[in-house]
Amino acid sequence: MNKITIGIPKALLYYKYKDLWVKFFENLGCEIIISPNTNREILEEGKKYVLDEACLPMKIYMGHVQYLLDKCDYVLTFRIACLKRGEKVCTNFMALYDLCRNTFEKRFLHYNIDITKRETEEFSFITMGLELGFPWRKIRKAYRDAKAYETLMKERRYSKQKNILGSSKKLKILLAGHPYNLYDNLIGKEISRYLEEQGIDLLYSDLYDTKYVEIDSKKISPKNYFTYNKEIMGSIVSYQEDVDGIILLTTFPCGPDSLCNEMIVRTVQKPLITLLIDELNSDAGLITRLESFVDILNERKNLHEERNH
Predict the structure, then answer these.
(1) For the CA atoms of the chain, what is the radius of gyration?
(2) pLDDT in tens, 237-252
(3) Which residues have a Cβ under 8 Å from the Cβ of 126 and sit 6 or more positions away?
(4) Residues ≥6 apart with Cβ < 8 Å to 300
(5) In terms of Cα–Cα distance, which of 260, 257, 212 is closest to 238?
(6) What average pLDDT does range 209-233 have in this prediction?
(7) Would you say 233 and 266 are in contact if contact means Cβ atoms under 8 Å apart?
(8) Residue 1, CB half-sphere, CA atoms under 13 Å: how many?
């Protein structure tokens, strides 16, 4: 019997949940195909399937889906409405499965999370496994083992980042934004590559202990109800005293970011620059802005060190 092949688009929430997704399907004995790093070809392909007004990450996501269509039995997608009571996520995540299903002629494997309807992550993963024909006990064990693996990997990455804070006297910058912006090859990778080449210690906002998110995020916005944006705010509050500057990375046009970034800019006292990325961005213009920001941070750091001697 041939193994079931699951295609995973390397876009959107892949960068947040990849450890859980990959380990879950591996535990079930499925074959996994992950689409390649984002490139211009994938972006241009994705633009054919969404409105011009769609955000850059959605255009990229649809390009990754299209890449996988003829390479697997199912393409994994999701519908996420509510992760915590009283909170919401971007409407794109609520509509993603329906958008994919109605755009492509392909079998999509998806899961729903909506705490208001008691659709938890575990319940949804078990439902997904049953749809594939696996026995309930095997699915539950596959999910719980995958969840433990996801937790372990998060702790390792978070611990490694904390070690950076006290490991050197180099310039430290927090790169803040959604993981699908921070790590995507076409959006954030050029930024992180440039900063690392300058010898800067780079920290990432998703490597943050979210158990403090309610307390931390309220220091920027007491009433924000976008779950993923609250995590970005909480991370900025947590790290701001330990870094020399903050780069707020966002993509055009993102509704939740446009609201939340404004509150961040008005509240945070640490030197901060906002980089808004769209499909027409020039790498040269981006690097010029980064060079200027790094120069300013170096000057501030040198002045501070001179005063303390």
Answers:
(1) 20
(2) 999 999 999 999 999 8
(3) 136, 139, 140, 143
(4) 244, 271
(5) 212
(6) 93
(7) no
(8) 4
Enter the tokens of residue 273: 């620059």
- Per DSSP, the chain holds a count of helices (H) and strands (E) of 12, 8
Taking the C-alpha atoms of residue 215 and residue 220, their distance in angstroms, rounded to an integer, is 10
pLDDT in tens, 175-189: 999 999 999 999 999
Instruction: Enter the DSSP assignment of 104.
Output: S
Each residue of 20-59: pLDDT tens digit? 999 999 999 999 999 999 999 999 999 999 988 899 999 9
Cβ burial, residue 248 (10 Å; 0-12/13-18/19+): buried
In single-letter form, the type of residue at position 298 comes to N
Mean pLDDT of 267-289: 86
For 280, the token pair is: 């027409």
> What whole-number distance in Å separates Cα of residue 207 and Cα of residue 168?
19
Average pLDDT, the chain: 93
Kindly give, in sequence order, each residue whose CB lies less than 8 Å from that of residue 77, ignoring residues fewer than 6 positions away: 9, 65, 96, 97, 100, 108, 109, 110
Asked if residue 133 has pLDDT above 90, the reply is yes
CB atoms within 10 A of CB 179: 22
146 vs 24: CA distance, rounded Å = 5
Structure tokens at 198: 């300058």
Judge whether 83 and 116 are in contact, CB under 8 Å: no
